[in-house]
Design brief:
heterodimer, A: 161 residues, alpha/beta, Rossmann fold, two-stranded antiparallel sheet, 8 strands, B: 278 residues, 8-stranded mixed β-sheet, 12 strands, globular, iron (chain A), metal ion binding (chain A), metal-binding (chain A)
């Protein structure tokens, strides 16, 4: 669709951060990678598709932020020292931070599709996509929605055991 | 009719405990495995460990059962027995190779969980422990729904001390309240590290917002205990051995044993109260 082409058209590279295992440092690495790329002068965005346990907002100190809509969709929250990293997370859509997102697959899939196509990312060198543990709905839907775009590849995170 | 089937199968289960978190990698499976071992130390008790983490089943490896397969009999699927009184079921036993990814959407995962409850011949069980994946999604909704055919004594929620974990765990506590699942209490894993050489204590995951203790106070749930980090725990898990048996002198073992006892007491009391009412 026209909207899809507009919203991701300006993104040069999309990187997925995956594991299979939880608690190995996916969100931590996603955050540090974004900050490091930004330090190196790149335009960076983070898409947090962990709907049940979104960690990125807290890691970037924007857990109390809200998102707004514009003509092309949602406006991401701008974070980091120079407020130049664009971030979208379900964390911003919760009424209260402790609200559980208790959704089955289909509802999660619908939101992920929206996150991919309806966020006005603008021009980015890198869009880093942080994922929850596993190989299920979120992963299938994210890869399906991103496949027509500039998907560079995946970084896999683990711990030694 | 389906509910009746589940009810029949689960009729012989006395106590059911769900092990939850909201956060991954905090030690749910480790705790589930040790809870199972701890309860099964009493040879008069029959213990069942059900692993419903479909994408990342850790229980087979932790129980030393990798490579085992599930056998069918006239009465259903047979659990894989670690001890005579400790039976295990996991999707891990259904894979042709341990590296096979189970890339399933919610509905298919729900179907397998229902099969685990309906088709596995657990027999008479004193304790059914259910290990879950992180999150608050299909697996969690389904297990609560299907187990309404029997009753769930409650949930043990596992966390680590840092705020990034606690923020997910608070969501899990809210999930339990939403689905009216009683919370037995919270276990704080990786709570400090004592160097075996110099005996100095370090906080590897500092409790920057007061750890599980503060969270439990704020949310009025019980803190069952804190378990320190012990590198032997990870090693025992990797080797499929019971850490409690391999390191009986570890402070972590003492913590785990205290927690297991508290859970046992909760379940026995619960049962007693129910019988009183009846």
């Amino acid at each position: 669709t026209l909207a899809e082409r507009t919203n991701l058209a300006g993104v040069r590279h999309i990187l997925l951060v995956l594991s299979g295992k939880g608690g190995v440092g996916k969100s931590t690495i996603s955050t540090e990678l974004a900050l490091a790329l930004r330090s190196a002068g790149k335009r960076v965005g983070i898409l947090d598709v962990d709907l049940c346990g979104p960690s990125i907002p807290r890691m970037l100190r924007v857990q109390d932020s809200a998102v707004h809509q514009c003509d092309s969709g949602w406006v991401p929250v701008f974070v980091g020292q120079d407020k130049a990293i664009a971030l979208m997370s379900i964390g911003f859509l919760l009424e209260r931070p402790d609200d559980a997102v208790v959704w089955r697959g289909p509802k999660k899939n619908a939101l992920i599709k929206q996150f991919v196509t309806d966020v006005a990312w603008g021009d980015l060198d890198f869009l880093i996509v942080d994922t929850p543990p596993g190989t299920s709905d979120e992963h299938i839907s994210t890869v399906e929605a991103l496949r027509p775009h500039q998907l560079l590849g995946a970084i896999l995170v683990t711990t030694p055991q | 009719a389906e509910a009746a089937e589940l009810r029949a199968r689960l009729r012989a289960v006395r106590h059911t405990v769900l092990v939850l978190s909201g956060k991954g990698g905090v030690g749910k499976s480790t705790f589930s495995a040790l809870l199972a071992h701890g309860l099964a130390a009493d040879e008069t008790k029959q213990v069942a460990l059900l692993d419903i983490d479909i994408c990342g089943p850790s229980i087979p490896k932790m129980m030393g059962l990798e490579g085992e397969q599930v056998h069918q009999s006239g009465s259903g699927w047979s659990p894989v027995y670690v001890e005579e009184n400790l039976g295990v079921m996991s999707v891990g036993f259904l894979l042709s190779s341990p590296d096979d990814a189970v890339i399933w959407r919610g509905p298919k995962k729900n179907g397998l969980i229902k099969q685990f409850l309906r088709d596995v011949d657990w027999g008479e069980v004193d304790y059914l422990i259910v290990d879950t994946p992180p999150g608050t999604s299909d697996e969690h909704l389904s297990i609560v729904q299907y187990l309404s055919a029997t009753h769930i004594d409650g949930a043990v929620i596992v966390t680590t001390p840092q705020e990034v974990s606690l923020q997910d765990v608070r969501k899990e506590i809210n999930f339990c309240r939403k689905v009216k699942l009683p919370i037995i209490g919270v276990v704080e894993n990786m709570s400090g590290f004592v160097c075996p050489k110099c005996k100095n204590e370090s906080q590897i995951f500092p409790p920057t917002t007061g750890g599980a203790e503060k969270m439990c106070q704020n949310l009025n749930v019980s803190l069952l205990g804190k378990v320190p980090l012990d590198p032997q725990i990870g090693k025992s898990c990797d080797r499929g051995q019971s850490f409690l048996a391999e390191a009986p002198e570890s402070p972590a073992t003492l913590s785990y044993r205290n927690i297991i006892q508290r859970i046992q007491e909760y379940c026995e009391q619960h049962h007693f109260q129910e019988e009183k009412i009846m």
